[in-house]
């Protein structure tokens, strides 16, 4: 039997994404977003939902660009800070002791210390209640050499991203591989 919890924003897991943008004066800003993920494979695209009251909303609407950074576990305090402090009040990236780097492809910064960066040009926006979902075409993915695995691809065990539990309001580490995708289900195929 299942217990009804009503309409809630529960989905397991939520990725912890850092959305970076420039304001009208060229000042870098970063915001934590858990409402996001890949939304198209062709063109490669990511969607992030941002409340209209946020500075990041204004920035993306003005520039038409943003980056999505994947923070590793060791930066959980900084990632959390980006979600509780407003960019209207302070330079959050500098206050967190991190480094803003300008993208060479889009009018947005990214955070040097975070190992994976998606550089995005906004392709569309969708109004959804108090949020706007920004869909960004991924023009490039930049990955630190230190997190490239033996396969030549980013290695989740080296990246060490973390997840958000919206019900408990807690962060969690990722675990070890449990199965190979597009392979584990073959045992059930007839």
Automatic annotation (TrEMBL):
<feature type="domain" description="Flavin reductase like">
    <location>
        <begin position="9"/>
        <end position="164"/>
    </location>
</feature>
<dbReference type="GO" id="GO:0010181">
    <property type="term" value="F:FMN binding"/>
</dbReference>
<dbReference type="InterPro" id="IPR002563">
    <property type="entry name" value="Flavin_Rdtase-like_dom"/>
</dbReference>
<dbReference type="InterPro" id="IPR012349">
    <property type="entry name" value="Split_barrel_FMN-bd"/>
</dbReference>
<protein>
    <submittedName>
        <fullName>Flavoredoxin</fullName>
    </submittedName>
</protein>
<comment type="similarity">
    <text>Belongs to the flavoredoxin family.</text>
</comment>
<dbReference type="InterPro" id="IPR052174">
    <property type="entry name" value="Flavoredoxin"/>
</dbReference>
<keyword id="KW-0285">Flavoprotein</keyword>
<dbReference type="Pfam" id="PF01613">
    <property type="entry name" value="Flavin_Reduct"/>
</dbReference>
């Amino acid at each position: 039997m299942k217990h009804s919890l009503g309409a809630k924003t529960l989905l397991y897991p939520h990725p912890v994404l850092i959305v970076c943008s420039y304001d009208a004066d060229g000042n870098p800003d970063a915001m934590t977003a858990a409402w996001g993920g890949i939304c198209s494979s062709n063109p490669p695209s990511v969607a992030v939902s941002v409340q209209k009251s946020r500075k990041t909303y204004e920035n993306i609407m003005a520039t038409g660009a943003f980056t999505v950074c994947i923070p590793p576990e060791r930066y959980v305090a900084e990632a959390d800070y980006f979600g509780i402090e407003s960019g209207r009040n302070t330079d959050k990236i500098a206050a967190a002791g991190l480094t803003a780097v300008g993208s060479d492809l889009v009018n947005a910064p990214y955070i040097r210390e975070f190992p994976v960066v998606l550089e995005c040009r906004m392709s569309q926006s969708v109004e959804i209640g108090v949020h706007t979902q920004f869909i960004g075409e991924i023009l490039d993915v930049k990955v630190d050499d230190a997190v490239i695995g033996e396969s030549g691809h980013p290695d989740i065990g080296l990246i060490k991203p973390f997840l958000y539990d919206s019900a408990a309001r807690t962060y969690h580490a990722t675990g070890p591989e449990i199965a190979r995708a597009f392979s584990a289900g073959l045992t059930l195929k007839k």
